[in-house]
Predict the 3D structure of the following.
Amino acid sequence: FLSTCSVAFRVIQEKRCSRGSMRKVIHSVKVGIALVLVSLLYLLDPLFTEVGENAMWAIMTVVVVFEFSAGATLSKGINRAIGTILGGGLGCLAAILADEFGGIGNAIVVGASVFIVGVAATYSRLVPRIKRRYDYGVLIFILTFNLVAVSGVRADKVIRLAKQRLSTIGMGFAVCIFTNLLIFPIWAGDELHRSTAAKFDKLARCLEGCLEEEPNNKAENLGAKVKDCKSVFHSKSTDESLANFAKWEPWHGKFGLSHPWDMYLETGEVLRELAALILSLGVCVQSSRQLHQATAIREPCEIIGLSLAWILRELGESIFNMTRCRAKALIAPKLEFIKQELSRLGSSLQIKGLEKDENLAMATFIF
Amino acid sequence: FLSTCSVAFRVIQEKRCSRGSMRKVIHSVKVGIALVLVSLLYLLDPLFTEVGENAMWAIMTVVVVFEFSAGATLSKGINRAIGTILGGGLGCLAAILADEFGGIGNAIVVGASVFIVGVAATYSRLVPRIKRRYDYGVLIFILTFNLVAVSGVRADKVIRLAKQRLSTIGMGFAVCIFTNLLIFPIWAGDELHRSTAAKFDKLARCLEGCLEEEPNNKAENLGAKVKDCKSVFHSKSTDESLANFAKWEPWHGKFGLSHPWDMYLETGEVLRELAALILSLGVCVQSSRQLHQATAIREPCEIIGLSLAWILRELGESIFNMTRCRAKALIAPKLEFIKQELSRLGSSLQIKGLEKDENLAMATFIF
């Protein structure tokens, strides 16, 4: 049975691996297509006469905005658009204002406005809430403001220039959206959903790995499971960026516009705590094994651990399938049984039971 | 004594807070200065006649490359420079090659080279090792290659154009380096050093918080300590990016060119494991307190815990001051004593002793 399991595990691992590299190839090809499409602005004569040298801005937009997932692309694109519009508008105002002064006053007003806007916008980029969602937009705002305000000193046709650039940036963005969202789109939301469900499975496997005790229990096998567990506990920043991108994504698949992405973050937080507990449980079990202690309470502990692992799997599966936990009726009595066992043992393992309750509450809350 | 401690803690907290926001203000003002300096290329007539419209690229470089820490700025700047040179060179080659064909063949060769280079470079951006250190460089490579190759179709003076852009980018970079490194530089290495040393202190405080047991032990006080402990354990990605930037930084203060930044990552890894253990220890202690159990072994456990906290503080301080652990002679017998206590108790707390040993080994390895 165990060998079957390990073979299945390896197959899944490989499949996941090849799926990951397949997606990388798809993404790369999509970028290539978008670049060729946007280069047509230069390459085809009728298009070039229309846009001229400003086609450069379309290429720049595609290179910079095209990201791996749909959400990231949309987020960057919308940030760029808003930043450009705001920066351009304010820059025009500054250029017109400076024009009133004329001569040396012109340069001084432009310099002062560049300084003030630069300092204020840079400070706002360091505020965590803005940094998380609008960092790129503010960057583009500073850039556009500077370019427009400063070149306003030279060019009288500042507004025409801004309009042209804006329209080419729009073209670039349209190419991005077209290739990114319509050709094999990669959704950050899907990724977050899948990885959250997979975390339950990883934890369950790690828990079993800590508890099982055959003579041929290879250390490297356990090591791999512990590594999985650690990957759960370092997943915070990945999860946060995925959730951030997922919020930008339109309706797709089973995910509506108001899908509760923050719930995934909360579930992830609880799972990370659980991962820490499982890791330290593993160390405890190992050291108590070395000391040949506490054999009396080992068996009930193992039973509890295995049923916890089973519950975790069940929860992960139900989250993955987005079904109301089919086994809710099954899980509740199991938890009750575990609690009774625990209060009988009165061991420090109780913490896991508590943790689990919280987890279950969270999971049922989601669906 | 405790109230003194808490006051001291609050003062440190506030000081750190104000220091943090002070640095943010300094950074913002530096960005403002750099922007004004680079705008002079437009504003002053003699400079403008020299560089012309290409001054735009200098502004863009400053806005995009100027980062919070010196290491991040250098890393981005050098990446940008190398990406521009390589992309420009390869783009010129592609444009010249395409010129050989002429007519419609020209456009086809350019389109094909854009596609191939775009796909290959985008794929390389997804390789973790390249992504970590050279992501921005590859992005700029793609951008420059496209711009040069595509506009080569139109402009015969591609090489002159590339040279001009390169020199303005160089000017922008020089302004960045000047303002970022010479005016109140903020070093990523310093930050990593300080945060690593502070982690020891946080863990020690959390450990004490878990163990101490006065009647007026406010829950919120403990909560703050646990939060500190959690912040240690989510510090992986911050640490990694700081270490990455620190490697780009030149010699400064006590930090040489070959300062072992990777050691900080290893120490951080061990500290994160320790944080997980302390967190679960805290839960264990709480639940055992609720059950009024195991009072017999509580006192020795507390003694052990407090001396561990003391050792942690000592280690953190010696790392902060970069002195060879002054208390090495003091710590070794303490650890010996703890080990004896533990083997006497034979409790699951042993894991902490082991962990500590490893930690000490690591710390002495560094110095």
Summary: Chain A touches chain B through 66 residues (CB under 8 Å). The first helix of chain A runs from residue 2 to 43.
